[in-house]
């Protein structure tokens, strides 16, 4: 299990009613839960049969296929709400994750814990959570290879207001795991500097978008200090 998956595993609760891994691929985390004798229900879903079959084969190799319920569906479409209290969605774009959460209306009516790892558009996902009665309670930032991964836990509750820069990089007070937040801030600063330099070259210094990006850039520089 690579560093990203290992950190996601560490963010899961040690016990609970049930767990589902959405977009499970090879089901590494559900298998690890089953092997570790986790007592709750373990579900794994994927939108296509091929990866789900690979997940079943991997579970068979570890002798835990009887402990994992495999669902072929889009997101949480076939997940029984009363069978789980923890939802893991990782390795997808933040906008895609928002769509999955948005279609599962039952999530906002209970005490579900979300463990999320967007590959892109983390700011879109944070915005969705904060504006849909979820509170981000814990975050982790790790670097692996050329990627810097953001992952966070959320549960129903009212969160404080986020600044534009915090939507991008998270609330520093919540980052309790991982040691690469500074690298994340540097990455976002470089990206925004390139963007504003291009806009300046195109004569767009007076545009609202240019001023917006410049304000975020200044805030990121303050966050790094």
How do the strands and helices of this protein lay out in sequence?
Elements: H1 3-11, E1 18-22, H2 28-35, E2 41-46, H3 49-61, E3 68-72, E4 86-93, H4 94-103, E5 113-120, H5 122-130, E6 134-144, E7 147-156, H6 164-169, E8 175-177, H7 181-201, H8 208-224
Parallel strand pairs: 1-2, 1-4, 2-3, 4-5, 6-8
Antiparallel strand pairs: 5-7, 6-7
Span between N and C termini? 34 Å
Percent of sequence in beta strands? 15-25%
Strand ordering within the main sheet: 3-2-1-4-5-7-6-8
Number of helix segments?
8
Largest sheet: 8 strands, mixed
Mean pLDDT: 91
What's the Cα radius of gyration?
Answer: 19 Å
Q: Uncertain runs with pLDDT below 50, 5 residues or more?
A: none
Shape: elongated
Q: Which sequence of SSEs, written as H and E, runs from N to C?
A: HEHEHEEHEHEEHEHH
Helix content: 40-55%
Structural class: alpha/beta
Question: How many strands appear in the DSSP assignment?
Answer: 8
